[in-house]
Amino acid sequence: MTTPRDHILVRQTRPDDFPAIIALSKTVYSFPPHWNERLLTSHLAIFPEGQLVAIDSSSGTLVGMAASLVIRWNDYNVQGSWKYFTDEGMLTNHDPVRGRTLYGAEVMVSPTMQRSGIGSALYAARRRLVEDLALPRIRAGARLRGYSRYADKMTAEDYAVNVIRGEITGMTLPFQLKQGFRVLAVVPDYLPGDPESLGYAAVIEWINRQAATPSDYGTYDPKFALPESR
Ligand SMILES: CC(C)(COP(=O)(O)OP(=O)(O)OC[C@H]1O[C@@H](n2cnc3c(N)ncnc32)[C@H](O)[C@@H]1OP(=O)(O)O)[C@@H](O)C(=O)NCCC(=O)NCCS
Description:
With 230 residues, the protein is α+β, with helices and mostly antiparallel strands. 24% of the residues lie in helices and 22% in strands.
């Protein structure tokens, strides 16, 4: 039996993928900014290896995309927004000489194809890139999609804790946790226009054990610890 995953090819983004990426971002996100040709051209000029697409090889359709850059984490404030960490989406702050942290600027999958392993395939390729570049870690802001439904009952931090414990079914954070990420902090105003997260995001980290030294690990707050059973 074949599964959708068997048909998925992950490869580096090419300029002829841009129209499909732009269309995909409008399908995935109800709010701006969406990807556009100027931003995507900048990504390929700056860090082509960090730009990935997932293609359904049975139809040739683009079904997912991931964008990343390398940053020198200590130059940044952990409370910063998506625009701050990605230079307004241009990725011109990419710093492969001094940087040791791969920063995840985007991962998205076509809504009709979600939960069929495409996001995992993109993340596997991203982890391979980190291993090839001998970087110690990936960090990113994981939007707390779904928080808007709980905002009248709890803080965003408590929402994240409940999602981590499996007491609330989250929508994006469970995916990142499944990829081996851990939560370092919850921050406001990461994506201010996002109606589903109300702007809140979890700052997340994945460690490349082949390259990391103890100082590369973030400071874990025990309240964000995974339950033993996970
Ligand atoms: C987050 C996203 C990229 C995940 O991609 P995906 O292809 O659906 O993920 P996968 O199928 O590889 O999921 C792997 C596992 O993650 C978990 N997971 C993924 N989406 C989940 C969800 N909505 N709710 C709960 N768990 C989820 C599940 O454990 C899943 O395994 P399972 O389906 O066997 O149970 C996708 O949902 C998406 O594009 N979301 C909108 C854009 C977005 O918010 N991107 C993240 C920006 S921070």
